[in-house]
Amino acid sequence: MILLDSVTKTYPGDHKPALDSVSLHIEPNEFVFLVGKSGAGKSTLMKMITKEETPDSGKIIIGGIDLDYVKKRHIPGYRRRLGVVFQDFKLLPRRTVYENVAFALEIAGMSGKEIRKTVPKVLELVDLTDQSKKFPAQLSGGQRQRVGIARSVARQPKILIADEPTANLDKLTTEEIIQLLKKINDFGTTILVTTHNENIVNTLQKRVVTMKDGRIVADQKNGGIYKLDETPRPKLTRNMMQAPGHALKQRPRRVIQ
Amino acid sequence: MVGNKEKKIKEPKVKDEIKEPKNLKKAAKNGLKVMRKTRRRHPLREEGRIIKYGTKGFARNFWLSSAATVVMSITLIILFVTVVASVILTNTADMMRDKIDITIYFKPETTREDLDTLTETISADSNTKSVVTADSKEEYEKFVAENAGSEEIINVLDDEMKALMISKMQATMRIKVYNVDNLDSIKYIVENDELFVKLVDEEKQPTYDVNQVEIATITSWARIARTGGIILAAVFLVISILIIFSTIRMAIFSRREEIYMMKLVGADKRFIRGPFLVEAEICGVLAGLIAASASYFGFMWLAPKLAGYGINVDEILGILQSSKLVLMFLIFVGLGIIIGRISSRLAVSKYLHKA
Ligand SMILES: Nc1ncnc2c1ncn2[C@@H]1O[C@H](COP(=O)(O)OP(=O)(O)OP(=O)(O)O)[C@@H](O)[C@H]1O
Ligand SMILES: [Mg+2]
After folding, report:
1. Which of A13, A242, B37, B59 sits in a 20 to 30 Å window from B8, CA-based?
2. Whose CA is nearest to atom 14 of ligand 1?
3. How many other C-beta atoms can be found within 10 angstroms of the C-beta atom of residue B327?
4. Smallest Cβ distance to A25: which of B8, B38, B262?
5. Residues A180, A186, A192, A198: what is their CA dihedral angle, to the nearest 10 degrees?
6. What are phi and psi of A5, to 5 degrees?
7. B40 contact residues in A (CB cutoff 8 A)
8. Helices B212-223 & B62-99 angle (0-180, nearest 10)
9. Which residues of chain B from 55 to 84 reach within 8 Å of chain A, CB to CB?
10. Using N-to-C axis directions, what is the helix angle for A141-154 and A112-125, rounded to 10°?
11. Ion ligand 2 — residues with CB under 5 Å?
């Protein structure tokens, strides 16, 4: 479903590649966490998938589409096939919750009748039926992100990618959002999420791909941890990692060279 | 994972609307096919939505839209004023030229036959437009006709007096010319033709520079109005596009994030740009209507006053009072739409092509 083959990308002006021969295959209906410390190249990898950036070399095939063949004029059409969730939500501030979700369907050319049928269903899925007439500024962070998710799944994409969707949210809201993503995954959507939040990664027990310095350094099928860098962790994190039932205690990490 | 890569590519057992590729080459073809399919969808439906959001945008950005509308209206009014000024001045100059004639006075004994011969001579000149002549008797009759209302004059005219007047009255020739600025050829004929030389009244030599100064002034004004008007109109058009452009760009600057968001979510350029264009076009239509109405009523109010100064407003008045008025409104609205479209397109393009 998502396939990267030896993808390398160096930003102009940088001497170190942001992605260094990255290969990754994600199967349909997988839920994958992409973790790694800041600057590891997670966002760059996501941008490869959304075609915000193009690789210097390597192949990317998303949902059966070779991105080499997605020319500039095809990009909008290509992006409409993906669901994308953003850290800063990226909601249209002058449009209501309803309109924001409807927008995703309008740009896909869906008929007004279908849109009026679909939007309430999607809003119900993210539990925002009561808020549909509000503007984004009138919502809490968690609610905004749920609008973002509603918008991204309204077209029922096969793939949903989310770059740090919970970075701006508190702990409880984060959990709520991750549960929502899991629900969407259960409906059959392939999901790729980057995060810094070890807690969710550890509790959800899904596949975890770890990046470091532009490379994939670990890939765990039913993973829990991503403590791969040798830098000392802050105390809070260490405590969290020792929570009962933590993945670290259950299985050793699998490092791939 | 890295080691397994080749194998993974070759084992797609996926039920998807797009089939997972058997190999990379196939994926390439598949991608092409899919991309071709996603291109044009429902242009009409899309157009409807663009108009809907454009209208909403106009309402939601009411103050900015109003500002843009005012600027456009002023531009259109200035355009109207320049065009009208040029037409009016040109017409006035023409009218004045038309009024100008060269009057040649002949000795009273000049006969009708003489006058006809002279007319023939002068008509041969290419600058001569028309010639009207009158011998002494006709001049007298004209005098009587002109003074028909004033009894003191008519009543004192007994037969003797009448005969005396006729014998004193000079025969006249009034020449209208095509080009007032060059009377040399006519002057040459009058000064050199034998019959002219013989009959022209020595006491009252014709002058060839009557009103010449006034004519020259109005002519140069008309010329300035014509060429200057075009330049001025063009300059104002550019200025107003710039003003509207920056007004809209200001509006769009605050919305560049929105444009970027729309792009990320997969909106087509047309769909992103459309509402902005529609917003500006609504401004343009309103501005066209406002400017056309203002111009119409303004001119109607001003026309009699201008006419009082001897300015020729007939042509414009004729247009405004006929069904051509509708055409004028349409032109105004059309110009408004064009100005709005150009400036908003320019304003959006910067943010649309980024990222
Ligand atoms: N637009 C850019 N221009 C130049 N260099 C960039 C750009 N974006 C990212 N980089 C560089 O590429 C590397 C990877 O960045 P990236 O944003 O992918 O990291 P990340 O894993 O998403 O980090 P974070 O967890 O902080 O979001 C970094 O060294 C960064 O400086
Ligand atoms: Mg990032």
Report:
1. B37
2. A41
3. 11
4. B8
5. 60
6. -125, 110
7. none
8. 150
9. 57, 60
10. 140
11. A 43
The pLDDT assigned to B294 comes to 96
d(CA A195, CA A33): 7
Substitution target from A87, A91, A106 for chain B, most B beta carbons within 10 A: A106
A65-66 and A57-62: which strand pairing? Answer: antiparallel
Express each pLDDT in B213-245 by its tens digit.
666 776 777 677 677 777 877 887 787 778 777
pLDDT tens-digit series, residues A203-214: 888 899 999 999
Residue A171 confidence (pLDDT): 87
- Asked if A107 and B262 come within 8 Å (Cβ–Cβ), the reply is yes
More confident residue, A97 or B62: A97
Q: Closest-CA residue in chain B for A67?
A: B31
| Domains along the sequence of chain B with CATH | 43-96+217-354 (no CATH), 101-208 (3.30.70)
pTM: 0.68
The one-character DSSP state at A71 is: -
Q: Which residues of B331-346 are buried (b: 16+ CB within 10 A; e: fewer)?
A: bbbebbbebbebbbbb
- Which residues of chain B are under the pLDDT cut of 50? 1-21, 39, 355
Amino acid type, A58: G
At A51 the three-state DSSP class reads coil
**What is the whole-number distance in angstroms between the Cα of residue A195 and the centre of ligand 2?**
9
Distance, CA of A156 to CA of A122 (rounded, Å): 10
Q: Looking at the complex, report in whole angstroms how far the Cα of residue B21 sits from the nearest Cα belonging to chain A.
A: 6
Q: Are A93 and A170 in contact (CB under 8 A)?
A: no
Contact B284, B237 (CB under 8 A): no
Collapsing DSSP states into helix, strand and coil, what is residue B171? Answer: strand
A53 Cα nearest atom in ligand 1: 1
- Asked if B268 is an interface residue toward chain A (Cβ–Cβ < 8 A), one would say yes
pLDDT digits (tens, 9 = 90+) for A24-73: 999 899 999 999 989 999 999 999 999 999 999 998 989 888 888 888 88
Percent of chain A beyond pLDDT 90? 53
Q: Is A8 left (phi over 0), alpha (psi -120 to 50) or beta?
A: beta
**When comparing pLDDT for B250 and A175, which is higher?**
A175
